[in-house]
Amino acid sequence: MAKNLKLKAARARLDLSQQDLADMVDVTRQTISAIERGDYNPTINLCRRICRALNVTLNDLFWEDS
Hints:
With 66 residues, the protein is an all-alpha fold. It is built from five helices and no strands. 64% of the residues lie in helices and 0% in strands.
């Protein structure tokens, strides 16, 4: 699984730490870190919560460019 640099960039644009985002979507900071590293594949429900928190679409963060 590839690193999710789109998630990291979207979080940084809002000046949110991994902990800030984790608190917003009710997961641990380690979960956000693992998603960004590409070590964890989040559920669709978690993807949706992250997108709502960052005000982006699923395609913006989780769609892989071919």
